[in-house]
Design goal:
By secondary structure, this protein is mostly helical. It has helices spanning 2-28, 33-49, 56-80, 91-127, 134-152.
């Protein structure tokens, strides 16, 4: 009973953190660490101590691979577009993808990234935006990925 209540409270706090991350990135184009680090710690706790669709090992592998791949992608795009003052991938986005890897695992992270990139591309083209806030689309992709990996795969 207590175990279930703690699990629900952790999920509610994680949902609140994800909402604040998406909202802040959409409004101010920044992902604050004050919401990102609790989401990271809750993700590690949930994947380790509670029944979750992926294992702790898979979560850590996904987090490391997500961090490395997005860091390399950001570095390459920064070198290609050296005339721009702002990098195409912010460090908050890199940290968010790392946290997403902990929550979603390798398969879930791939699904969430695909949904987020497609959604951001469609939104950016339709609004004719130069900069697209990535966090709202990644949070939506993460929720869809959790639903897909939990119930369909």
């Amino acid at each position: 009973m207590i175990f279930d209540i703690v699990f629900i409270i952790l999920l509610l706090v994680a949902g609140l953190c994800a909402w604040q991350i998406a909202r802040t990135d959409f409004r101010r184009r920044i992902i604050p660490d004050v919401y990102l680090f609790p989401l990271l710690l809750i993700g590690l706790t949930v994947t380790h101590f509670f029944p979750w669709p992926n294992s702790t090992t898979d979560s850590l592998v996904a987090a490391m691979s997500g961090y490395i791949l997005t860091s390399i992608t950001g570095f390459v795009f920064t070198k290609i577009k050296s005339d721009s003052a702002t990098p195409p991938i912010g460090f908050g986005d890199i940290k968010l993808i790392t946290v997403g890897g902990i929550w979603l695992g390798t398969n879930g992270l791939a699904i969430a990234l695909a949904v987020a990139c497609l959604g951001g591309l469609i939104w950016g083209i339709s609004k004719k935006q130069k900069f697209v806030p990535f966090a709202p689309f990644f949070v939506l992709g993460g929720i869809l990925s959790l639903i897909i990996t939990t119930f369909l795969i």
